[in-house]
Design goal:
70% helix; ARM-type_fold; mainly alpha; Exportin-7; 54 helices; protein transport; ARM-like; TPR_XPO7/RBP17
Amino acid sequence: MYFRLADMAGSVYEIEHLRVACRELYQSPDPARRNVADKMLYEFALSGDCFEKCIILMESDECCRFVAVATLLNLLGRNGSLTDEQRLKLRTYLLNFMFSHQDLESVVIPSFCTLCFQLISRLIRISWFDEGANRELVFQTAVKEIMKIAEELNEMCLKAIQLLSNLVVEMCERTGVILMRKRRKTMFSFRDTFLFDIYKLSITLLRRVLINIPTGSPIDVNQEGLLKNLLQLSMNCLNYDFNNSSGEEVSDDNFIIAIPDSWRLMFTQLEVVPLYKTMLARFPQFGSTIIACLTQLACLRRAFLMSPERTQFLQHIIDVIRHVLSSSQIFSDQEFYHGVCLLICRLKSCHQLNEIVKSENYTDFISKVTQFTINSLRMVNIRQNSICYLLMFWKRVVDSISYVRMGGRTEIENYAPLIAEAYLESRMLIADAVANSTIEEDPLDSVITVIDHVEQLSKICRYQYSKSYAVIVRLFDEQARAYNIAISQHPTIGIQTTILENKLTWLIYIIGGLLTEHGGGTSLDEVEQIEANLICRVLQLMRLSDSVLAQRRGSARLESSYLWFLECFRKVYVNDTSRRMSKVFQKLSNVLGISDETALLTIIVRKAIQNLKHFTGNETLLSDSMKLIDSLSDGYSAAKIVLTLQDVNFLMTNHTAQHFPLLGLEVDIKTMKLRTQFYFMLSRLVNLTCGENVDEEFDRLLTPFKDVIDGLEKIFQGSDSSTLQEERSKRSVIGLCRDLRGILLACNNNLAYSRVFQQIYPTVFFIFNQAIKLWSTDHDLVSPIFRFCIELCDNRSTRMNFKVSCPYGYLIFKEITNIVKNYVENILNVQDILEQHIYEMRLKGFLLCFRMFRKLFVGQYLNFGVFYLFGDSSVDVLYQKFVQMAICISQAHLSEYPKLAEAFYMVIESSTQNIIVCFANLDVELQIFLLRRLLDGIGSFDTNIATCCCSSLDNFVDYLHQRLRRVQQNRWTTTQATLPAENDNCLKLVRQHPEVIQEIMVSILNKVLFDDSRCQWSLSRPLLGLIFLQEQFFNQWKVQTISSFPMEQQVHLVNYFEDLMVGVEHNLTSGNKDRFTANVNVFRLNMLENVKSRLPVINNGVSKKNRITPGKSMEFFINTSRCVSISASATKMEKLLVNRRLPVQITSHTLNSSRNHR
């Protein structure tokens, strides 16, 4: 054993306590004792001697082992928690442990062995380039040793195969690696050096095991486990992220497996696909894994195989599909069935239809796929995502039919209508099955799935449109006739009526999809005739269902399908470029009396308004109805007609709870969110058509609000709290916020915005202030108020660029400041908020405040200096409240809530752009706090956050140089009055805490040199100013960095550092920064490409050799850099650099000047 426990054991008493806690955690029936044990083990995982004690626990019982492995995994996830020596020792110990214990699985914790494999795999990935005593890549050597064990096919072979399988998956993970460049480098290194050999090993071992098993004889447990794990290893190799596309969404349309060209010879020599085909025939119990492997192979890029090899390869895949589809057991295993559907879909997405048609046994293949699709559609309990893959295959086949010669189209022309008919009839079967509880999930519950199916089916139906049309008409007429009889005889809803409504819902969705699809093999005249008949049938059915809607509760699904149909109909026939003289409009006029566009728009609007009246509890249906009305304003001519409709005029003047229950106070709080969309719809119609009559139109729109606002004003002005009626008043305020926000959302010009503001100021702000004082902890009320304020101060489309004599911008700023001030003072007084409620009760409000601050700071509609000129402290108060909120937010919260982090850093950026003095005047401790937050943000994986933090830092550094230059040149003293007044806190920061500037500079230098961040340009912008502030420290860092490389490369590095400052002057103008940025890019490329040896991993200025624990490394380097005893090689580097200093310093002289002024 690599470790001797006697050398590592600390306190036996502590170890015994840990062992007891581990057993309590997994074996105690008492939840309280388990919680105590969990807390103790959590603290243990954060302790300094955690690693050594974990090794001791590994030699205990199964509970202790599981805790030890989980803790070590956690340590690896925290970057820098384990030293190189500890990782090397852990590697040796874990490999010895795994292969010296025969049975590691337990009854209590059955996943222990899998967790061990994950720990070893992650350790190897994180330490992939670590070197041993002889500069040997010891962790890569470990992989070779594991592969040798796997080749032996002995009792340890299975563990080695499982370990390799876990390692292949782990190599594409991100946990434990901060630098993206290092992760990508590790992935590609493993791909180029080991992945091919591992996959080849899996294929070779499969052949060896297959030879040892006689044909037709059963396999024992050991052989079954070996085959299962070898196939899993093979599948993991094929699933490897060859192109580093993890995190990117890849659709089935462009799914390609980019296997390297070096694998080509193996596929032909080892006959990989025939081997899988043989395995599938002999061992059907592994069918899902084998099919998954073949699916990946079916997606190989076209250039991977030459033409003859590709043809043969395609033929093997087709033969496998034919063999599988001939099996009667295909529907018994859902996972296997889904894999077959995916394989069929991928076959067409990665191969041309011409190639498939020319293959042998094509006729049998397409016949079996057709029958398989029809059988799948008729089985109502099949998963709908599997059906979607089959529909996708047929859609692509129909799309490509024009590229196939006439002789190869016969089968598709015959089979495509059969697929369409089978799908249509299957929807009727599903509606019956749902009613009879034969299936648990109804596909109609997921509108996204339904529309996805419809989009695939539409192309198939339109290929032979007349045949599909006949089926649709037959089914539609049958169900519509039965539905008419059912609702006339039984007005109340019964089970049979529900079934008929669901069937009609499916058919209406399909008809709507057919309207938006284009192309197909049918002439335009025939298409218009078919669509005219279908549209008339749907509109007639809609009249029928609307006629009884007042007597009975309507079907929300049926109404949703109507909306989908009307939206599709509108896109094609109701727009500025629609075919108004087509046969569709002639048919509508003859059958339904719809003679012009006004009558047609009346039907659409009336349907949407009817839903708003009768379906208050269905949020999706309400939202879709409002979207339908709003979409009518996309075309100018349609928008003008809509506003003249009688129904719309009624809506504009009677938007009250009496007519629309959605606007009442009794609806659910969540449903009240739709009020914003409702009033956005109305306001948008008004804005598009009102022209110069802005005052008149908005007065008409805002008239119903006057009574609500006056009533709330009286309530909040009253001194008697009994008249408050808390819940009702609260809901009134929420509704008012959402309504006004919706109106402002559609105001994109100054006239409309100003008119709305005149109507609501100042009463509405008084109401919101009082509400915030009373209910600051109620997020249901705070969120609408803040969202209204965000919209109010958003200068979108320069709508807030008021006239010079108009004070609206200043009034808005002051009112929002008062609201935020009241909120922060109240919410910070609330103590003991549970962690699970911290976001809802506090952080969500802070997030909205931050968004509000940014809108105010970047709006460009007011001059902040005016506040200081007249002695108004609103700007300072607002910024103080921001800082108070920032202090209450931990770094863990920023990491856990990305939206909060982005809003927080954007406030800092906007404030440093427009009111930098507020930032610079903060106390030194607060400046340091915010700078460290910016440093944390620079290291974020989110490019937006990192760029935002770099910009903020650049603005602050530029301001520091301006202040220091003014002091240096004796232009005026720091106490001279300015607007706003400046203090010396930022100068104190530079003079008293230089380590802060040094820490930021070193962190950015490390990211520029050793990370592949996507925001390299942004990182370089503040770097020049930081170097000018800390030139002496930068030279020391430069010497240490150069001395960490071998002597033969140090001369090149000196030249690189010299070129870094070529052409750079001692100023921070944009042109000078651009030159420096260009030099940084060249410098970085030289470091990455021309330095042959491995780049050292530098942790905040400390080389890997001297790395210390995170959080103290910077402090260590800063303290030692001032009195560092430079080695011989470093001294030589300093001599080389002595004549290559930066331009004239400003730091020491400036600080001395600052002292003299003070």
